[in-house]
Design a protein that fits this description.
It is a single chain. The chain is an alpha/beta fold. Strand 3, helix 12 and strand 4 form a beta-alpha-beta unit. The longest helix is centred in the first third of the chain and has 28 residues. The termini are far apart. The chain has 24 helices and 13 strands. The protein has a 9-stranded mixed sheet with strand order 5-4-3-6-7-9-8-10-13. Strands 1-2 form a two-stranded antiparallel ribbon. Strands 11-12 form a two-stranded antiparallel ribbon.
């Protein structure tokens, strides 16, 4: 049964009409901006209306009263981290008063940036300022206003979004945002949901307490958002995304999903240039590695130096904690102590330790494909875990044999390899690999869940939206979780393989080599040979019979 919610009706109507609209390519920025404006405006106004009701005042009266307005501002900054300074700047007021004006778009894109203020300690301002600045650079408002068809289309989209119900429990506001971003109206780079689901589930199985999580190729942020649903609060989320549009969309998506942006550190940067992000090290890393990425490694001196410096600082902090009983919080709160540690690090030869060293048979790794895996693992804390989706080529490509040997035998980093379903329309298969630092097991768990999926029609059908998704059932996810946690061997699904067998197979890590999923009966080669001989004899006899019949009928073919 389809929802009867207001949001569903508005969305269905908008998606139907959008096919007839003449939309500018920059419509993505307009949609992102409008959703953020709507979210901030309605959140704040709903709260203010409850406050002024108790005071038996209207919102306009509360704003005009200097004392009450100051109380509202302080309350807003404490609860939300932002405040809208003018009661006429709420989105519904702007729509009601200026929608029919010729220059409505100019007002609409001006009012919000001019009237929103952020708390001094809030990181929101940095991310919102980037969006507002990008809007100015990317949008030609005058061009839209003097193009009647385009002006009408943009106004219709803004109007529809402004009428959504932020507090609709049947069809949530954030869900509407996701549906539109996955439609043909927008041009967002996103990761498949089922891959994000697998990665976040594996991480949550292993790490019960997480302080920092990093996705170097975060796209629309699904992996981090899924992980947050499975983790306790207090996690700092790190991420990089090179495409500015996708980056801004991801910021908006996190904000609308009620994330405090004070707890995220996102960079609009290409992780292939450097994986380092503020010198941080991470409890977990999870990411869908782009197929086009083959190699970036710590020959990048800045990146390598930061990793080495971070490691040395960690050693110094451990020594101070152990030998002098210092409080760990002092490293963050005591500026004099921080300055002393930085000065000490400058006098130490950190740069010497920042050079990647490969000796003997591993010397060739300096120019190896996929060497970035070592860089990512180096960014983990000593007990860290990394789950990534990566090209299947890594498992069996001959030129990567030395790297696989290094990661399995020399470092013992590879813990689990999972064959996953192939995304519809994708020609290059991928696998999920789990790496663990300081691993004690001397085996690898192989799981084949490549056939355990369904394709399901979306329960909500909208024009312009892809109608089938690849999904994993709860039973499949629970089975994977149970096998991963308990390292189980299940016929035709999983196998725990000792490293000795990996060595015998020349470090070939293809899942099909270790998990037999063949369906049907095996036939002996001798039996096949006998059957083929019988078939050949029957064909020969049949040919002779046909020739005899043709002779009797005096039939000849030239």
């Amino acid at each position: 049964m389809r929802p009867t919610s207001l949001n569903y009706k508005i969305l269905k109507n908008l998606m139907s009409k959008s096919r007839r609209f003449n939309l500018p390519f920059e419509i993505d920025y307009i949609i992102i901006y409008t959703f953020l404006y709507k979210y901030c405006s309605d959140n704040l106004k709903d709260h203010f209306m409850m406050v002024v009701k108790d005071k038996e005042m209207t919102l306009d009266e509360a704003y005009r009263d200097e004392y009450t307005h100051e109380l509202l501002r302080e309350d807003a900054m404490h609860l939300f981290g932002y405040h809208i300074e003018n009661p006429d700047a709420f989105i519904d007021e702007v729509i009601n008063k200026t929608y029919s004006d010729r220059f409505f778009l100019t007002d609409f894109f001006r009012v919000f940036p001019q009237n929103i203020q952020f708390a001094e300690n809030s990181k929101d301002k940095k991310y919102f300022d980037l969006l507002f600045r990008t809007m100015k650079e990317e949008l030609n408002i005058k061009e839209y206003e003097f193009n009647n068809e385009m002006n009408f289309a943009i106004k219709e989209i803004i109007f529809s979004i402004s009428k959504l119900d932020l507090f609709d429990n049947q069809f949530e506001f954030r869900r509407v945002f996701d549906v539109i971003s996955n439609s043909r109206m927008m041009h967002i780079h996103s990761n498949p949901d089922y891959i994000s689901q697998i990665l976040s589930t594996l991480i949550a199985c292993e790490k019960k307490s997480i302080k920092s999580a990093y996705d170097p190729f975060m796209k629309n942020g699904s992996s981090l958002i899924n992980l947050s649903d499975l983790c306790e609060t207090g996690v700092t989320y790190y991420g990089k995304e090179g495409d500015k549009l996708t980056y801004l969309y991801t910021i908006a998506r996190f904000f609308i999903n009620i994330f405090y942006l004070n707890h995220v550190v996102f960079k609009n940067e290409d992780a292939t240039q450097s994986i380092d992000i503020g010198g941080a090290s991470f409890d977990v890393i999870l990411s869908k590695i782009p197929v086009s990425i083959k190699n970036y490694h710590s020959s990048n001196k800045k990146q390598s130096f930061e990793i080495a410096k971070r490691s040395k600082r960690g050693e110094l902090e451990d020594m101070l904690l152990e030998k002098f009983g210092m409080d760990s919080n002092s490293f963050e709160q005591d500026s004099a102590l921080n300055l002393a540690l930085e000065n000490l690090l400058e006098k130490m030869d950190v740069e010497k330790d920042s050079e990647e060293k490969f000796t003997g048979e591993y010397e060739s790794l300096k120019d190896s494909e996929f060497l970035f895996l070592i860089n990512l693992i180096d960014s983990l804390k000593d007990d860290g875990i990394m789950a990534i989706s990566i090209s299947q080529n890594f498992l069996y490509k001959n030129s990567l044999q030395t790297l696989r040997k290094y990661l399995t035998i020399e470092k013992n980093y590879i813990d689990t390899i999972i064959s996953i379903p192939e995304e519809l329309g994708r020609t290059r298969p991928e696998v999920v690999i789990v790496f663990k630092k300081n691993r004690t097991n001397r085996d690898i768990l192989f799981i084949d869940m490549s056939k355990d999926y369904q394709t399901q029609k979306s329960p909500m059908m909208f024009p312009g939206l892809f109608r089938r998704n690849l999904i994993l059932s709860n039973d499949t996810i629970n089975k994977m979780r149970d096998v991963f946690v308990n390292r189980l061997t299940i016929t035709k699904f999983s196998n725990v393989v000792k490293l000795g067998e990996i060595v015998k197979n020349d470090f070939n890590l293809a899942v099909s080599r270790y998990v037999d999923t063949f369906e049907g009966e095996f036939v002996k080669l001798e039996e096949l040979t006998y059957e083929k001989r019988e078939i050949d004899e029957n064909v020969k006899r049949l040919n002779l019979k046909i020739e005899k019949m043709m002779d009797e009928l005096n039939i000849r073919f030239k």
